[in-house]
């Protein structure tokens, strides 16, 4: 079905609730340990490192939960999916782990490292079309023809619930705002379901010209032609129907990032924080400079960047030097005893329970 037809006809894609996210957490905990947190001090943001997840992306959460939930329902059909890369790798790993046959349809031009990652786990790779939507239409056709189970990269209740486990892992650290990248909206929907009832603000991030979800939330559901972008993992012509409803009701804002900002952020992550992220993986952090928050968390959604692309960025992009931190004055600290302590003090403004869960951050002076 072409993207235009999908935009005009809303299928029955089911529903997903907080209970589904909690059920996903119970399924996944024996397969996927929690990913770590890192404090990017120069950005003033905590990072949820899904680039260190199995297969290098959060996508394996939704794929594995969908396969496990399907097995509980007695659905043992082969799995087929369409993906620019990360969902395909997640499906391939989950299918390998559970002994399920998997077929992945990827567009021509998909990153070679992602294609290799899918093949490594034994899934069949079919390349079709020039975009995710072309691959999607072909995968749906094959599913109908051969009675495969088609597994959407984002518009599936089991997939959304699995992605929501990222939010479950963040909850104990008391964030006041969490920033998530948006392509089709599966991650943003799941994280919002997990955290919104706790009063956490959820902010989505998209790239200028690759902002189909932001447009859909405003009521414009026409397919767009995504511009070329470093964030290939979020280049979606039209977001999901289920994810659009969830994002419209649960997101507090969607920040649109310029391509130049995204490129600079990815390079700064590599040079200043020693973290490798793909374009979509750096998107939430790039949006973070426009989001206020005392305990701000950004999801680094993936790290599967092509080596040649990274080398080109490190050669071409020259990030601006970050501002020097302000010198802390003794009178701004809470107690006189803290004023004479060494520079490795925890910030006085941070709550004590957060320090119990997260590593302390050194204070630096210019």
UniProtKB/TrEMBL annotation:
InterPro entries tied to this protein: Ser/Thr_Dehydratase, TrpB-like_PALP, TrpB-like_PALP_sf
Matches recorded under SUPFAM superfamilies: Tryptophan synthase beta subunit-like PLP-dependent enzymes (SSF53686)
Required co-factors: pyridoxal 5'-phosphate
Gene Ontology biological process terms, A to Z: isoleucine biosynthetic process; L-serine catabolic process; L-threonine catabolic process
The protein's Enzyme Commission number: 4.3.1.19
Any Pfam family hit: PALP
Origin: domain of life: Bacteria
Low complexity bias: start-end ranges: 339-352
Cited CDD domains: Thr-dehyd (cd01562)
Family, as annotated: Belongs to the serine/threonine dehydratase family.
Protein known as: Threonine dehydratase
Taxon lineage: Bacteria, Pseudomonadati, Pseudomonadota, Gammaproteobacteria, Lysobacterales
